[in-house]
Design a protein that fits this description.
single chain; 591 residues; Immunoglobulin-like; 5 domains; eight-stranded mixed sheet; six-stranded parallel sheet; 12 helices; 36 strands; 24% helix
Length: 591
Amino acid sequence: MFYVLLSACLLAGLGVALAAFYRPDRRRRLLRVLAGLVAVAALWLLAFPPRHTVSVARSEAILLTPGYQPDTLRTLLRRLGPATRVWFYAPDSGAAVPTVAVAVARLGALAEQRPALRYLHLLGAGLPAAVVPELDSIRLLWHTPPAPAGFQAAAWNRRLELGQPLVVEGRYRAAAPGPVWVRLQAAGATHDSVQLPGGSGRFQLRYTPKAAGRLVATVSAGPLRRLLTAEPVPAEVLPTRPLRVLLLAATPSFELKFLRNHLAARQHAVAWRTGISRGLTQTEFSNQPATDLSRLTPALLARYDVVVADAAALGGLAGPEAQAVHTAQRTAGLGLVVLAETTTPPRSLGGATTMRVLPQPATDRPQRLAWPATKAVVPATLQLSAPARLLVGIANPARAVVAAQRLGVGTVVVSVLPETYPWVLQNETATYAAYWSRLLSAAARPETAATEWMALEPWPRAGLPVALQLAGGAASATRPALVSNAAGGPLGRLALRQDALLPEWSTATYWPTQSGWQQLQRPGLPAQWLYIFGAQDWQAAEQLRRASALLQPAGIAAASTPAQQQIAWPAGWFVALFVLAAGFLWLEEKL
């Protein structure tokens, strides 16, 4: 059809042009030729009109969140039009709402109020990932704000055993270049600090709590004697797990004697066997009844969580005893701490470990440890290969002096620090306790799986949904979880939903109404504490986390572009053009 009409129009145009050119009356010849061609072209354009691109209005609205820029809002309203609907996301009814917006507490209400809504411009700090699915088919167009200054990320052990260090790691970015100090504070004192010379970078801070219970430390940043920002670091310090420890020494040892006294004073069950002479041993017991330690048997080793032995004692075990220790460690989870020497061969390091002892030049000068913050004589270091992991190292040069490796069900810990008891003599009891707590906890026989609550949000906040997961307890509709505040006042009840694939896992959604420590309790199970952060806590890190969660290929766009559409020019223009050209030809003929 296209070619038929094209041929007809070309022939008609050629005919009109020839007729006008060879007409006897030569007046206005060019005008007649031009008018004839215009008339034919108008007929062609009526059949195949040209198209042009136009911007098509879409069903759009604007959603404001805290931290939005008014200039960005004004620019967007100028582009979309002043009649564009503006909402402010306020899950908390007490939040201040801008005068240009209408508060909305539930995102699902947007689709209910405006079913035709297809695009939602998001301004400000963004939305929690947990509430984004409520938008359903509405597409988010997020106008991301500038990257905020402050703590960009942070992580720490939120539950730790007494004697273990609270380790805070993260990344900080200052608004302007210049040296910045990042500090870890607790109980009104600064316990650790690090300087970021350029004002930005990663940091790691440590603090060992002195008592069990709940604590809220603070990580702050700023130049010397000036504070720029501070964020809470809550943690739950658990009481020390009572351990059953068997000490083996080839000869009387001050190191193991001090360790025995230290463990006994903290109510751990301790048995000590030390060699006196060939074939003669001495045994001592603390916090447990006396038992026969002359031979290490599977039944005897099953009574203990950890065996601490010097390398000579371990290498001097008879064949059946060595086999019993090896089997208990690999199959029953018995922990093994080996106090190695410079000449200890690899086969005496608790089995097929990937750790090797590297002797150091002989010296009596103590070296600084990276952790704990003290010094010790280091006659050797450890060469590690995966899967061995470092527990304690020296600061300069950075090398391992204590490491752990999982072998079978149990764990082997190797230490090349021959003397730590001088710390006790130097009144560094807390350092000594933290060091041995680290080693024994890493090696101890695994505990029976206990129930544990986990918040799937890194910074649970009041007024926003918090996804909770209970591991190790079967769900029951008749036994909901109870939530109470630090004073014991009830805050709510949580209905648990059992996981279809893992019955020992249950999930629940909790809407906290206040910040601070809150207790999760289920009948028959131990209680656990959960910290709810304030609205102003960790805002920079939360904004970056929301950005990484929202800007995914699942329908979330980072910028808005107007909708474009190709449409044909109105046919009336070409009809008018044809009438004008044909009218001129008719009028000129009459004249």
